[in-house]
User: What shape does this take?
Amino acid sequence: CSCHPQYKMHTDGRSCLEREDTVLEVTESNTTSVVDGDKRVKRRLLMETCAVNNGGCDRTCKDTSTGVHCSCPVGFTLQLDGKTCKDIDECQTRNGGCDHFCKNTVGSFDCSCKKGFKLLTDEKSCQDVDECSLDRTCDHSCINHPGTFACACNRGYTLYGFTHCGEVKGL
Assistant: This one.
C-alpha cells in the first residue's frame, strides 16, 4: 500500500494522512473522501474487500462499514484471526448426543449403534433389534436380550450352532 505524494502513510500502515492530520478514507461506494482523523471510521482501505480474495475469509465474507466480516457455516467455528474456519468436533461434547458411537465428519458428525441395535429416526438414539420377531430366527424358542438373542430347544433336542435344534438320540 502506498500514498499519493501529497500524503504520508499513517502508522496503521493502511491510511494516508494529509498535512493537517486528516485521513483519506474510502467510502462504501469506493470513492475517496477526507475525514477528520479523530472521527474517522476505522476501515481497512482498498485492500480489504470481499471482492478481492474473498476478503481473506476462509468461507463467507460480508462487506460492512467497518471492513470485511468473515463467518463460518454450521459445524465450523471462526478462529481468533477472524478469518479462518475450523471444524467443530461435536463428538467431544457429550458424545455428540449419540447413544453409542459418534464419528466426527467435516462440518458435521454421524452416530452409529452397537451390533444388535438400530439407529432411530432422530439419528442419535439406538434401539435393541428384537431378532426373535424375525421369522425363523430359531428352530424352537428364541429369547431376546439387549443387543443379542439366544435360541433354546425343546426337551429331547439339543442346540447345534446358534439357531438349529437336533433330536438327541438314545433318550
User: Anything to note?
Assistant: The domain at 90-126 is CATH 2.10.25.10 (Laminin). Residues 26 and 32 are 5 Å apart (CA to CA). The chain has four domains: 1-47, 53-87, 90-126, 131-167.
